[in-house]
Write a structure and sequence with these properties.
heterodimer, A: 27% strand, B: alpha+beta, 13-stranded mixed β-sheet, 6-stranded mixed β-barrel, 26 helices, 17% strand, elongated
């Protein structure tokens, strides 16, 4: 599904150059659940942003579903994005002015889905994440766990092939965190590819493969349960 | 999708009361100003367009070069000669205003200002509709009189006026033979009562319609479709030569003015009434636009200032699939919606303000929402203003990259600079308006208080009607009035100060060969010998008239040259090439006929300074003061003793009513008359002041919003600074210093602009308030602008600075 070859990204300010990604090579198959781990500043989020086409690499190639998207324009990327990718953020990123149901409905609006179908679809997803009873509430009226469930619902409402989750449990307590992770697990079981950035090794265990990063490089990839050689501990 | 946008827009508007209130109030004030000014401009540009064939009608006007007269009216014999010589003139008509006229109806005498004498074709010419009577015959007899509906109801109430008798000035009885529809208000003409031009020989002498010197007849020509008026005007010089001789074009010329241009562009001597001015129309259009622009800038500034709040939404929308065009459409939609709210409020404001604004301007301005045209304009205005106000924020907000804004690192340095530029613009325009208002007021004050060269205080003046033959009454009237202890003196004259002096004669230094081109046209005023004393006018040389110099001087065939005295003003002495001292004892010859065979030779006995006789609009003319003449003495000036004037005025009214029973008493304070000359400017000044106040209010409103967002954004910084030991004063200074800089820059930009424009404006006045008297306005406007800024920002800053630092630090 995804192939990265020698992908690099450098951030420049007037006098400092920071290499966020350095010659990253990575392949991700359809249906995988990938956890990306690494210390702060290792390039996890940059990688996720580029995978999600929110940002572009400086060099290297990025094949998404067999097509090179590394040098596409923002407009072209937004089309690919809205048809294929759902996002979940650590800070939920719900629109405060919209109700829970309206937040979830938003991606469908941009896909120009008819209203009736939209309402059914939103109801279906809200039920799936067990938040349907709060559909009319505003995000601020919900707990963190509930908000993140809404964010998950919004990410999956278009049935994307890929879900990118940036520390989805970072702002949640253990119980809520586990709940969100099991939701992601369910989605994965249903065939959705999931790439999740996380700090928490126990959460990484929900993944089928862990990608470890340090200073912008991929250090190792290991299938959960099999220790890779040379790796000693979790970041 | 649209409903989603509307929902978000609506919730954004209701969810941010400060932001929305500032924008809606600002925009509604700007829109209301624009609507009101549009109505005003629409009205001002509608003058005389409603007449049938308005585009083909032109007014013939006349210039006299030597005494710089530009008359709106011409002499009566010109019209028939024009019609006879120029077949391209389809029709021509003459109207003469009678001024104040005493009408006697059913033994009651009333002053009327609306009587005109006109050619019989005037109704057909302007397509004025008759309500009763036959337009073809209504003016057939010289003693027929026709009333407008308004005049008919004024004098006859519900009775049928047809056949009723009106006595005019005690001169003749007229029979009402028709009633016509009232003239609309938006015409430069003003008349309600019309009588035939054929009455003129009876009232003013058999040759009155043959006189080329009586330039009182407004004359209108209708030209064929597509005919270029310049082609006719080009032939006027030969016309003048044909009838007035080879030299005549050096002294006088005829011109044409398009009927529809008169109201906004004509400012001739002896206009029907004070016309409008295209400069005023442009100025107020510009000012209204500026107020709206300042409000639009508020929207731009406040929207971009709180962009960080919207940035997250932009990021999320982009992440879930919105493209930039969709976001631009959304934000533009929001600003249009907000503008729509503002428009509703603006319409309410207009409905509230229009009646008093119309009354203030004395114009029947109308605003009707029932008119589909109005609705289309309001809707179009809403969309256009919404798009203009929303354009920059829409493009700015929609360019955010989702990665950055979701991380919360949206850079807004570009928008900060632009916001500062826009704030400077807002304040610079407000300061220009402030200074402009100040200069207009200063000129008004100057005009009212400038030393006119004579003492106009405690004077009441009474102007006599056109036909008045009261020469014989002057002596008893004066004697009786002066017997009252509260009346200091009574004098009469052909003109009183505040009036435009259009009288004049041909003069040459006596003893020189009388050649036409050497003869100078100089204004003259006939005065009582005590006139100079009455008005406390000082002499530069010589003396005032003596009583024995007051005999009427009239040359005859037998005695073609008579002798009299004259007093010149300084300009007149200069035109003869004399200093005031040199002028004394010189003799000037005042010709009394075109053949130059009859004259009055006047020995100069005194020279006075130039006095501001009419208003500061007009240049002080070279003037010859001469003895009274029965045909001209139409004004009485009465100087009252200091203190309470009521007894003296009551006495005057009583004496007048007794001695002149058929002329209703009609006095005015001279001060009021002078003020009336500045009425238009005084109203403009007030209007200007109001619009400037709106502009500054809206700009300050915007600054208040901006300051509150800035303060909010810097809450954490304020907290840290306070923890580090900053005092509340330090914080207030910190927050106000940025805006202070902007206001100071605005001043630097505004000053030269204001100086330039106000110098231009002052050129309208011949005598203008000197710069030294308005230089302080620059400093004052800076102080006002700074005070407004400090007050608004200081309120915010004070609140932020006095909060406990822990609150600020907890904020993030």
């Amino acid at each position: 599904m995804i192939e990265l070859h020698d992908l690099s990204k450098v951030y420049r300010t007037s006098d400092v150059e920071t290499t966020a990604l350095n010659q990253v090579n990575l392949e991700i198959e359809k249906g995988e659940f990938i956890a990306i781990m690494g210390p702060s500043g290792c390039g996890k989020s940059t990688l996720l942003n580029i995978l999600g086409m929110l940002d572009s690499p400086d060099t290297g190639s990025y094949q998404f579903l067999g097509e090179d998207v590394a040098n596409r324009s923002e407009r072209e990327l937004s089309v690919v994005r809205k048809d294929n990718i759902g996002f979940i953020f650590q800070s939920f990123n719900l629109i405060d002015e919209l109700s829970v149901a309206e937040n979830v409905e938003l991606p469908l609006l941009y896909q120009k889905m008819p209203a009736k179908e939209r309402a059914e679809r939103v109801q279906e997803v809200l039920e799936r994440v067990k938040i349907a009873h709060r559909g009319g509430h505003r995000p601020q009226q919900l707990s963190g766990g509930q908000q993140q469930r809404v964010a998950v619902a919004r990410a999956v409402v278009t049935n994307p092939g890929l879900i990118l989750a940036d520390e989805p449990t970072g702002n949640l307590d253990t119980t809520n965190g586990e709940e969100v992770l099991s939701l992601l697990g369910e989605l994965n079981t249903d065939g959705t590819t999931i790439i999740m950035v996380t700090h928490d090794p126990s959460h990484a265990d929900h993944a089928s493969r862990i990608v470890r990063m340090l200073d912008g490089r991929v250090l190792s990839e290991n299938v959960v349960g099999i220790q890779s050689t040379g790796e000693t501990s979790h970041a | 999708m649209l409903s989603n946008y509307l929902k978000i827009a609506f919730r954004n508007i209701t969810g941010n009361p400060l932001f929305s209130t500032i924008n809606i109030i600002g925009l509604s004030i700007g829109l209301a100003c624009c609507i009101i000014i549009t109505l005003f401009v629409q009205y001002e540009t509608s003058y005389d367009k409603h007449w049938q064939n308005a585009d083909r009608i032109h007014r013939v006007t006349r210039d006299f070069f030597s005494n710089n007269l530009r008359l709106a009216a011409i002499a009566p014999p010109i019209a028939p000669l024009l019609k006879q010589d120029f077949p391209e003139i389809e029709d021509i008509t003459r109207i003469m205003r009678m001024g104040r006229t005493a009408l006697t109806i059913d033994e009651k005498t009333i002053n009327d200002e609306t009587l005109v004498i006109a050619d019989a074709n005037v109704f057909e010419f302007f397509n004025l509709k008759f309500v009763s009577g036959d337009p073809d015959t209504a003016l057939a007899a010289p003693t027929n009189i026709i009333l407008s509906e308004r005049a008919a109801s004024r004098y006859f109430g519900n009775q049928d006026p047809m056949g009723k008798i009106i006595n005019v000035m005690g001169q003749a009885d007229f029979t009402v033979t028709g009633v016509f529809e009232d003239l609309p208000d938006n015409t430069h003409m003003r008349f309600e009562i019309v009588t035939s031009i054929n009455i003129v020989p009876m009232l003013m002498g058999p040759d009155a319609l043959e006189s080329w010197g009586s330039n009182n007849y407004y004359t209108y020509v209708r030209l064929p479709e597509g005919f270029n008026p310049d082609d006719l005007e080009a032939k006027f010089e030969d016309f003048i030569i044909k009838y007035r001789g080879e030299d005549a074009p050096n002294g006088t010329a005829l011109n044409l003015q398009a009927l529809t241009d008169i109201h906004l562009t004509s400012n001739r001597d002896q206009e029907w009434r004070t016309n409008g001015s295209s400069a005023v129309v442009y100025t107020f259009s510009a000012v209204a636009f500026v107020v709206l622009l300042i409000a639009c800038i508020n929207f731009m500034n406040l929207t971009t200032a709180r962009s960080t709040q919207r940035a997250k939404e932009v990021g999320i929308r982009k992440v879930v699939g919105a493209d930039r065009r969709q976001l631009i459409a959304q934000f533009l939609g929001e600003s249009v919606l907000l503008t729509a709210f503002a428009m509703l409020l603006a319409v309410a404001l207009v409905e509230l303000a229009l009646p008093s604004f119309g009354a203030f301007l004395e114009k029947p301005l109308a605003f009707s929402l029932a008119d589909p045209g109005t609705l289309v304009v309001l809707l179009g205005g809403t969309i256009i203003v919404g798009l203009i106000a929303g354009s920059y924020p829409a493009f700015y907000l929609s360019h955010f990259r989702p990665v950055s804004v979701l991380k919360g690192v949206a850079s807004s340095s570009g928008s900060v600079v632009l916001r500062q530029v826009l704030v400077v613009f807002q304040f610079a325009t407000s300061i220009v308006l402030l200074i402009a208002t100040g200069v207009v007021m200063a000129q008004m004050h100057y005009a009212r208080n400038v030393d006119l060269g004579f003492d106009r205080s405690r004077n009441i003046v009474h102007s006599l009607p056109f036909f008045a033959d009261l020469w014989g009454l002057y002596t008893p009237l004066k004697a009786e009035l002066e017997s009252h202890p509260d009346i200091e003196s009574v004098v009469y004259s052909s003109r009183v100060p505040s009036q435009q002096n259009l009288d004049g004669g041909g003069y040459i230094q006596a003893g020189r060969q009388a050649v036409m081109e050497d003869i100078m046209g100089i204004s003259d005023i006939k005065v009582d010998y005590q006139w100079f004393d009455h008005y406390d006018i000082e002499f530069l040389a010589g003396r005032a008239f003596r009583e024995n110099e007051m005999k009427i001087a009239t040359p005859t065939e037998e005695q073609p040259v008579v002798h009299a005295a004259a007093i010149l003003n300084e300009s007149a002495a200069r035109r003869f090439g004399w200093t005031p001292e040199e002028a004394i004892g010189q003799v000037i010859r005042n010709f009394q006929n075109r053949e130059l065979t009859m004259s009055i030779d006047r020995e100069i006995v005194g020279v006075i300074p130039d006095i501001h006789f009419s208003s500061l609009h007009d240049e002080m003319k070279a003037t010859v003061y001469a003895e009274p003449n029965p045909n001209y003495q139409r004004n009485i000036s009465i100087k009252l003793a200091p203190g309470d004037h009521s007894a003296a005025i009551a006495f005057f009214e009583d004496v007048w009513t007794r001695l002149v029973p058929n002329d209703p008493v009609n006095w005015e304070f001279l001060d009021d008359r002078f003020d009336a000359r500045y009425r238009a400017e005084a109203k403009q000044a007030q209007m200007f002041a109001a619009f400037s106040a709106f502009a500054i209010f809206v700009a300050t409103l915007g600054l208040f919003g901006l300051a509150s967002f800035t303060t909010e954004r810097r809450t954490k910084e304020i907290g840290i600074r306070k923890v580090m030991g900053a005092s509340a004063t330090d914080i207030v200074l910190l927050l106000t210093s940025d805006f202070t800089k902007l206001v100071l820059i605005a001043n630097v930009i505004a000053w030269p602009v204001a100086y330039y424009f106000m110098n231009q404006w002052l050129t309208r006045f011949v005598y203008k308030v000197p710069f030294a008297e308005w230089a302080w306005l620059f400093v004052a406007s800076a102080v006002v602008a700074l005070a407004a800024a400090w007050l608004t920002i200081g309120l915010q800053a004070g609140r932020a600075a006095s909060a406990r630092p822990v609150m600020a630090l907890r904020y993030e």
